[in-house]
Each structure stands twice: as structure tokens, then as C-alpha cells.
Specification:
RNA-binding; OB fold (Dihydrolipoamide Acetyltransferase, E2P); 8-stranded mixed beta sheet; 3 domains; 39% helix; 5-stranded mixed barrel; BirA Bifunctional Protein, domain 2
Length: 499
RNA sequence: UCCAGCGUGGCUCAAUGGUAGAGCGGGUGACUGUUAAUCACUAGGUUGCAGGUUCGAGUCCUGCCGCUGGAGCCA
């Protein structure tokens, strides 16, 4: 009887005879010894097959990358093994000898990787991201569960186009138009009136034709909604929530963060309280000469960094000229390409930033923040930034008017640090029937399809509010990724549906 | 949708308008401590598609298709 164990448990099983099962990440042969790097989803382990075990040795003949195998043997400590332990194989069984695996252990272009997303998921980097994504989702559920929230599943097929029909995916629903959910919020409000504290978690769909590193057409959003909550309560909830997510990842996924090369110190800085400012204060900050001075200084520093990068790239050219080993030359070439990419990004930034600074100086109260304003503001802090009370014209009809400044609404956006942008958007909701009806009329909306929503303001209306957190943008920030497409197993983007 | 760039063996990339090449991966052989092993040999191509210019096009021109990056919009 075989007792299969997981690779992650091996360091506690030294000296014991066990079986492992998994996939061959790499196999090297030196004639009378084979090195099998086996992965099983919990980790990877070097397995040694010596010619002294002829049956096992022969069994692995012709067994290539990503073949599925079962290996039995004794676990032993071994400093020469990457994991510190290795399996001395005495029995081997090939479950299936795989065909030539398309993704070699070297650099590939993004198009090729995306076309092979189903196989790319097996790489160490992708499994690390998937594990962190899992942790963030689990921590989010735990957070709301611990605080007495009830999970409410809101519909994905929704009637009518609420805001901006162009941003919704239309589908045929038995001959009538229906739309894929853009948010569960309106339905969630009804549940908050039933249960007090509720949240929904599901996919949401945006038909915006956005081709950027921050956009997906299908992404996951977790949205709490709470009765008797006002804007201040939402601010507190959002910061506690984000801190909980970051802490969960720092506690359980150090290895994955390190595998991704993430700067953990930047995450450790994320603690309460988060900096807060109103939209009007943020506009004031954009106009502040002190900020302009800081931005100019930053610009100069980045210019210097750019010059250093260019110098290093040139030095590498010289090194390349002197290198004979082909594979070493290729390795250096790859490093150089990475630097070139970084230099290219930086060059673009340097080219655009002066314009952004000018935009900031000229920013007019009443405009919505663009990506560059958000980036300038959030980069002034080492933790997420909460901005509240935006002009009502740029925000949705259901947001509650701010009595202290009627030009604005009681909303909040939370911007992740390091330029990752908005990860939370939310608001206190308009709870006055008359005010909501007036706002809808102002927007030219037909109230008929919203009567059920207006009913919430007729039968025991209370102050309430909530927000939505985009899972993928959060994963992207916490993992320190350059593109959101790696944060979800099968990204759906403008112009990409496969696989 | 707009702007820019790129499409060459399985992959990553070379090739003044003049004989399509290298590395990796695959195959064969050698090697008992490899870490992207090393060494030798070997197979592998309608240069995205359709036209055009030219004695001659991977290279130049036009159109199309695909991809990538950026902008707007947003989580």
C-alpha cells in the first residue's frame, strides 16, 4: 500500500520511505544519474534516480517536461538540493509521458504565453499569484464573516441599463435584452434593509473598450453594504478591510511574495490609519507649489536613474562582445532586454510627467481625476489614500448629497500606493425618496424600472452605504505585478477570449 | 475608438534590396551531483495574408488580418 505525501511535508519526513506524485518540472540526466525536479502543487522537490536502481532508472527514459509521474523512495537531507531535502528514488512509475511541452524554461513573449495560458498556469510565478489571489479572497470572506456580515448572491442577468448603456454587455434573454451585471449594489441595498450587514462577491462585466494594464472585461468584485452606516463608517471599514487582506498575505504567503520579487517592506508599511482627504483638499494639493517642488525633484531623480540605466545597458554591450559561451550571452541579453524595457517605461514616464505636472497645476474643481492625477496623489503616501466627497456631476445618481457642501456627494475612493490606482469605490447612498427621484430626473432616467429600488426609501429608509473592492487590482498591487492579466486564471480582455 | 510599434523553424531573436541563420527546445550518443547542466552529431522554413514596385523582396509600397504598448473610461 503506497502512502502518498505532499512535497510541502517532506522536511518533516526525513529518513522515511514515501511516494510522491506530480509533474516533472525538469529532468536532467548525467548518464548514470537522473535529476527529476518534481512539482505537485504544494512545492517542488529534487528527486535522484541512480543507475543502481535499474528499474526506476529505465522507467524514466524518454520522460520529458510536465510528464506525470509517481516516485517512491527515501527522503534525505541534502545541502546540494535546492529545497534542502531530496528523494532518493527506488521506484518510479510514469502516469503519462507528456508530449513536448510548449513552454520551455526560458523567456517567452506575452502573446505566446497568453495563448498557452492553460499551461502557463503551471509555472512557479503563476502558481504563486494564484495562491495569493486565493488568500486575498479567503481573507476577504473571513473578514466579513467575523464582522457578522451575511453573503448575498446578487443576479448576474440584470434588466435595463442603469448607467452608461455602452459599458454593459447585452445578451439575448428569451427574446428580450438583458445585461451582464456591472455591480450587485442596488440588489445588495435591498438585502441590507433585510439583514443589516451584507456583502456580495461575484464576477462583474464591463464592456468598456479599455486596453490597459489595469482593465479586464470580466473581473471579480467584493461589495459590502451596511444599514445605518455613514461615510465615516465606510472609511473605517475600508481601511480595516484592506489591512486585513495585506496582513493575511504577509502572514501566510511570504514564500510566494519572495518568488514574485515583491518588496515586502512596502506592504508592511500598510497600517491604520490611512491618509484621508476630500476631493476639494486633493485639488488644493494638486495646486500646491510644495507638491510641484517635490514632483520636480522626483523628476530630476528619475532622470538620473534613467541615465544610469542607459549606462548599464551600454556596459552590457561591452560585456556581450567579450562573452563566448552562447547561453551566457543569451542570459545577459535577456537581462539587458529587461533593463531596456524598464528604461523604455521610464523614458515614457519622463516624457509624460512634465505634462502631468502641468495638468495638475491647471486642474479645475469639478473635473474627475484622471489616472495621472490619481497617481500623483497616491504616490505622496506609503499606504492607501482615501479621497472623499467628489463633485456630484461626475458620480452616480444613487450617491447621497453632501449637506455640508451640496456640490459634492458622500462618496469615497481608495487609491492603492505605488501607482496601482483605484481599488475601492463606494458611497453613502441617497436615502431620501424625494432627493433620489429629483436626481434621477436630472439624469433623465425613467423611474419605472427602479420602483423596487425606490421602495427602499418608502419603507423604513435609513442611512446606509457600501463600496466595491476590485479583487484583481488588489492582487496586482499586493503581488507587485505590472499587468492585471496575470491576476486571474483566464483573463477576459478587450480583444482576447482564448483560451 | 484613436495613436504608435511589431508579425522570420516549436520558442526567443539575427539577416545594406542579392545563397534564410544562431541560441534554446526536440531527437541520437557520451558523462554518478545536476541547478536554464555540459560536449558532439542531427532533424526542423510557402518569412501573417493578398496585391504591387524590381533582373531580384524577409527587407520597399498599398490593403487586410493578428498581436503588443499607450490614451480615453473605469474597479
Amino acid at each position: 500500500m503506497r502512502s502518498f505525501v505532499e512535497i510541502q511535508a517532506l522536511k518533516d519526513l526525513v529518513g522515511q520511505e514515501v511516494w510522491l506524485r506530480g509533474w516533472v518540472r525538469a529532468i536532467r540526466s548525467s548518464g548514470k544519474i537522473r535529476f527529476v525536479e518534481l512539482r505537485d502543487g504544494t512545492g517542488s522537490c529534487q528527486c535522484i534516480v541512480e543507475a543502481g536502481e535499474p528499474e526506476a532508472f529505465a522507467a524514466l527514459e524518454g520522460c520529458g517536461q510536465e510528464s506525470s509521474v509517481c516516485l517512491g523512495g527515501v527522503v534525505r537531507e541534502e545541502p546540494r538540493s535546492p529545497g534542502g531535502v531530496e528523494l532518493a528514488v527506488s521506484a518510479a512509475e510514469v502516469v503519462q509521458a507528456g508530449e513536448e511541452f510548449p513552454i520551455a524554461r526560458k523567456e517567452h513573449g506575452i502573446e505566446f504565453l497568453m495563448q498557452h495560458r492553460h499551461l502557463w498556469l503551471r509555472s512557479p510565478r503563476q502558481t504563486a499569484i494564484l495562491k495569493i489571489r486565493h488568500r486575498i479572497i479567503q481573507a476577504a470572506r473571513d473578514f466579513f464573516d467575523q464582522q457578522g456580515f451575511t453573503l448575498i448572491d446578487t443576479p448576474i442577468f440584470q434588466p435595463g441599463a442603469a448607467e452608461g448603456a455602452g459599458t454593459l454587455f447585452e445578451v439575448d434573454y428569451f427574446g428580450n435584452p438583458a445585461f451582464l451585471a456591472q455591480t450587485g449594489q442596488l440588489y445588495l441595498e435591498t438585502a441590507a434593509m433585510a439583514l443589516g450587514k451584507v456583502y456580495c462577491f461575484g464576477p462583474t462585466f464591463r464592456a468598456e473598450k479599455s486596453k490597459t494594464r489595469r482593465h479586464l472585461t470580466e473581473f471579480w468584485m467584493i461589495e459590502p453594504e451596511v444599514a445605518f452606516y455613514e461615510l465615516k463608517d465606510l472609511e473605517g471599514l475600508s481601511e480595516a478591510f484592506i489591512c486585513h487582506l495585506v496582513q493575511a498575505v504577509l502572514t501566510h504567503n511570504r514564500a510566494e511574495l519572495e518568488a514574485l520579487g515583491r518588496d515586502c517592506a512596502a506592504l508592511e508599511a500598510v497600517g491604520m490609519p490611512f491618509p484621508r482627504m476630500t476631493y476639494s483638499e486633493a485639488v488644493g494639493m494638486l495646486h500646491d507649489p510644495e507638491l510641484h517642488g517635490k514632483l520636480e525633484a522626483e523628476l530630476a531623480a528619475e532622470q538620473e536613474r534613467y541615465a544610469k540605466l542607459q549606462k548599464r545597458i551600454e556596459e552590457m554591450d561591452a560585456e556581450l562582445a567579450g562573452l563566448m559561451k552562447a547561453w551566457k550571452r543569451e542570459k545577459l541579453t535577456k537581462e539587458q532586454q529587461a533593463l531596456r524595457e524598464e528604461a523604455g517605461d521610464l523614458e515614457r514616464w519622463l516624457r509624460n510627467q512634465p505634462g502631468h505636472i502641468e495638468d495638475a497645476k491647471r486642474f479645475r474643481w469639478g473635473d474627475d481625476f484622471g489616472g495621472d492625477e490619481e497617481t500623483i496623489l497616491s504616490r505622496q503616501f506609503d499606504r492607501p489614500l482615501i479621497i472623499t466627497e467628489y463633485p456630484r456631476e461626475v458620480k452616480a445618481f444613487y450617491m447621497k448629497r453632501n449637506d455640508a457642501d451640496p456640490r459634492t456627494v458622500l462618496n469615497l475612493d481608495v487609491l492603492a500606493p505605488e501607482g496601482y490606482g483605484e481599488i475601492i469605490g463606494g458611497s453613502q447612498r441617497e436615502d431620501s425618496l424625494e432627493a433620489l427621484q429629483a436626481r434621477m430626473a436630472e439624469e433623465g432616467m425613467d423611474p419605472a424600472p427602479y420602483e423596487w429600488y425606490l421602495d427602499l426609501r418608502r419603507f423604513g429608509s435609513v442611512p446606509h452605504g457600501g463600496f466595491g473592492l476590485g479583487i484583481e487590482r488588489t492582487v496586482s498591487w499586493i503581488c507587485g505585478l505590472k499587468h492585471i492579466r496575470e491576476t486571474i486564471p483566464f483573463p477576459r480582455m478587450m480583444g482576447r477570449m482564448a483560451p
